[in-house]
Amino acid sequence: MASNLVHVVDDDSAMRDSVAFLLDTTGFEVRLYEAGAQLLDRLAKPATGCVLTDIRMPGIDGLELLRRLRSAGHRLPVVMMTGHGDVPLAVEAMKLGACDFIEKPFEDEALLHAIRSALERGGPTETADPGLREFVRRVGTLSERERQVLDQLVGGATSKEIARTLDISPRTVEIYRAKLMAKTRAGSLQELVRWAVLAGLA
């Protein structure tokens, strides 16, 4: 049976409290840590549940925490909370084995979905996800320009930066972006990045 324990790591006490309240009232067991070092010190072996951690923290940040968890042999699923514009960090986190990331500010339901998915999956994401082959197939239907915009987006570039790089207008970038989101059926940039990393495109 999947554990419903969530280890929440965030140096912002207000954020910790609000996430804890949401998870607690939704039936999850919650443990709070204000620093990555606290989690590493207190985590039992074998650990159960999943980790929800901020990516930007003083001392041990989210990426370093993920590295240390993995090197210590912990295979808990890890969900990263990222600030707006942290796509390159989120990509790096996914490559290190995070199972998902969620961008602040997030809707309650989006967070709950990410946590439930992580707990059901258990451990680092396996690329045997049935939707992955379908995503790769859809990427194959993109035009050359749409694929260039996809690569730039997954690399963390903004529409203005993509426009400069490809020598087109920001408005044109938005049109290509809308087309590639529709073709890949990604519901959000977060989902697009996650699929792209799992498919080895990032």
Observed structural traits:
202 residues; alpha/beta; Rossmann fold; five-stranded parallel sheet
Count of individual domains: 2
Largest sheet strand order? 2-1-3-4-5
For the record, give the distance between the C-alpha atoms at the N and C termini, rounded to a whole number. Answer: 33 Å
What CATH first level of the largest domain would be assigned? Alpha Beta
Spell out the CATH superfamily of the largest domain. Answer: Response regulator
Give the strand content.
Answer: 5-15%
Average pLDDT = 88
Shape from CA axes? Answer: elongated
Strand runs, count: 5
Rg calc: 18 Å
CATH topology of the largest domain: Rossmann fold
Q: Give the SSE order as H and E letters.
A: EHEHEHEHEHHHHHH
Helix content: 40-55%
Number of helices: 10
CATH architecture heading of the largest domain: 3-Layer(aba) Sandwich
Query: How is the main sheet built?
Result: 5 strands, parallel
Name the poorly predicted regions: none
Give me the secondary-structure category: alpha/beta
